[in-house]
TrEMBL record:
Residues 36-265 form the 3-keto-alpha-glucoside-1,2-lyase/3-keto-2-hydroxy-glucal hydratase domain. GO terms for molecular function: hydrolase activity. It holds the Pfam family 3keto-disac_hyd. It comes from the Bacteria. This is 3-keto-alpha-glucoside-1,2-lyase/3-keto-2-hydroxy-glucal hydratase domain-containing protein. Residues 1-30 form the signal peptide. Keywords: Signal.
Length: 273
């Protein structure tokens, strides 16, 4: 009788533990199959990136504008003569559609004096961009949406960062198509050479969210081709009204030295079941 009872106790214990083991295994499998954060920048070189600078062909990193030092992507102009509207962008090698992007940036050094005045303490991260290799040599800006990055000018006036600008695009803001080239965010003003954390949550051609230092500062939807600002583009590419559901991510150079680091992405594409 005692042997039987002991056997039943052991069997009961096994039956109780089995579901727990199954749950642990399921959680481990789910963790392995769930999206993981991926670094877009390896901290060593720009082999996974494509440069396109106005007046130059794709792949020509004129003046060593984009360079890697101390595990940082640095944007510099020390090898330029006249700036000559040589606006540039550094594109990651592949397009994305649904994702959460995290990065850090800081403005450093002196603004290049022959660049346009509006570029002072001004940079950006472009997304849903056209392929840089499809841009004509004389196209100045990519058709894209920009998370504009600004710093305070030290004059006591508010200058929020994490704004939206729209070269060759439009967005729906507060329920209607907004014709403004830039929409201001609700962020604080960040002065000086400090690192600021930026985030973008992009859900295809649906909702876009801008986050600065952990605070949601702007939301809008339905990014689409349209509007002005972009010049010398291929007309076959600029199909006004076409919703943008995916595109390239790019870091901007437009006259202000700026640093980028810790660039990571989380794939948010729906999982087909």
């Amino acid at each position: 009788m005692n042997i039987y009872i002991a056997h039943m106790k052991n069997r009961l214990s096994y039956l109780l533990v089995l579901p727990l083991l199954y749950c642990v295994a399921c959680q481990q499998t789910a963790k392995e199959n769930s999206p993981q954060w991926v670094s877009l920048f390896n901290g060593k070189d720009l082999n996974d990136w494509i440069v396109k600078i106005h007046h130059h062909d794709a792949g020509d990193n004129f003046g060593n504008t984009f360079r890697v030092e101390d595990s940082i992507i640095k944007v510099r102009y020390d090898q330029y003569g006249d700036f000559n509207d040589q606006f540039g962008h550094l594109y990651y090698k592949q397009p994305f559609s649904h994702y959460h992007l995290k990065f850090e940036y800081r403005f450093v050094g002196k603004w290049y004096p022959s660049a346009p005045e509006y570029t002072l303490l001004n940079s950006g991260v472009m997304f849903h961009s056209q392929d840089p290799r499809a841009m004509p040599k004389e196209q100045d800006w990519p058709i894209s949406v920009e998370m504009q990055l600004l710093a305070g000018l030290g004059d006591g006036h508010a200058r929020p960062t994490g704004n939206m600008c729209s070269p060759g695009t439009n967005v729906v803001y507060k329920g209607k198509l907004d014709p403004q080239h830039c929409i201001e965010s609700s962020s604080k003003t960040y002065e000086g050479e400090q690192w600021v954390r930026g985030e973008l949550i992009v859900l295809g051609d649906s909702l876009i969210t801008h986050i600065i230092n952990g605070d949601t500062v702007l939301q809008y939807s339905k990014p689409q081709i349209g509007g002005g600002v972009v010049n010398n583009y291929d007309p076959a590419v600029k199909i006004d009204g076409k919703l943008l559901s995916e595109g390239y991510i790019a870091l901007q150079s437009e006259g202000q030295p700026v640093d980028f680091r810790n660039i990571r992405i989380l794939d948010l594409r729906p999982v087909n079941k």
